[in-house]
Design brief:
This protein is α+β, with helices and mostly antiparallel strands. The chain has helices at residues 69-73, 94-106, 163-172, 178-189, and strands spanning 6-15, 20-29, 35-44, 48-55, 60-67, 80-83, 85-88, 114-120, 129-136, 157-162. The chain folds into 2 domains: 6-44, no CATH class; 48-189, Alpha-Beta Complex (Nucleoside Triphosphate Pyrophosphohydrolase). α3 (163-172) crosses α4. It is elongated, with a radius of gyration of 19 Å.
Length: 195
C-alpha cells in the first residue's frame, strides 16, 4: 500500500467466522489538501478464478447451477443461480485453481486454459480479485460427473447449454451472475464459438 494520500490509522477485525471482515479507519487527503477521517468495512475472502468452457463443434457452453444464500436473501426466490465454474484460489495460482475447480465442479479435466483478464467484482466492500479464463472442452475430457465436493458442502448441477441460448439468458434474467455475464459477453465479442 503506497498511496501517500491514505494513512490507515486503525484496523479492527469484526469477524473471522467464514472469511475475515475488518473495519478500517483511515485518513484520506482530499483534492484541496485537507484530510478527513473515513471508516469502511472490507470483507477479505481471498482471490478467485472463473472459466467459461466452450465447444466450437456443438456451439455449447458448460455452466453450473447451485444454491446461493446471499441471492436468496436478496430476492432470488429459489436461491438457485446459473454460473460459470469458479472457485477461490486458496494457496494455488489462478491457473492451477481453475483447472482443479473445473474438474471438481463440472467433471471435465482440461489442460489448456487462456487467461483473458482479471477484475475486482465488488470493490466497494470486498477485496477479491477474480481471474477470468476460457477453455475449449470435448466429451473426451469428461472424467466424472462433477457436482463439487461433499466436504465443501457443494451440490452443483452441471449444465450444457447452447451458447446462443445462454447468451439470451442474460437479457431474460435467467443469468444474473456478473462473472458469467462477463464471460459470455467476452465469448460473443471475440467470436469464440465461430468455426
Amino acid at each position: 500500500m503506497t498511496n501517500p494520500k491514505i494513512t490507515i490509522t486503525n484496523t479492527e477485525v469484526l469477524s473471522k467466522n467464514w472469511y475475515v471482515l475488518k473495519k478500517i479507519t483511515y485518513e484520506y487527503q482530499k483534492k484541496d489538501g485537507s484530510t478527513e477521517t473515513q471508516m469502511r468495512e472490507a470483507y477479505d475472502r481471498g482471490n478467485g478464478a472463473t472459466i467459461l468452457l466452450y465447444n466450437k463443434d456443438s456451439k455449447n457452453v458448460i455452466l453450473t447451477r447451485q444454491f446461493r444464500l446471499p441471492t436468496y436473501l436478496n430476492g432470488n426466490e429459489s436461491g438457485m443461480l446459473i454460473e460459470a465454474c469458479a472457485g477461490l484460489l486458496d494457496k494455488d495460482n489462478a491457473e492451477d485453481c481453475i483447472k482443479r475447480e473445473t474438474e471438481e465442479e463440472t467433471g471435465y479435466k482440461i489442460a489448456d486454459v487462456k487467461k483473458i483478464f482479471e477484475a475486482y467484482m465488488s470493490p466497494g466492500s470486498v477485496t477479491e480479485i477474480v481471474h477470468f479464463f476460457v477453455a475449449e472442452y470435448s466429451k473426451e475430457m469428461k472424467i466424472n460427473e462433477g457436482g463439487g465436493l461433499d466436504e465443501e458442502q457443494e451440490n452443483i448441477e452441471v449444465l450444457e447449454i447452447a451458447f446462443e441460448k445462454a447468451f439470451d439468458m442474460i437479457s431474460t434474467g435467467e443469468i444474473k451472475d456478473a462473472k458469467t455475464m462477463m464471460l459470455l459477453q467476452y465469448a460473443k465479442i471475440n467470436n469464440l464459438l465461430d468455426s
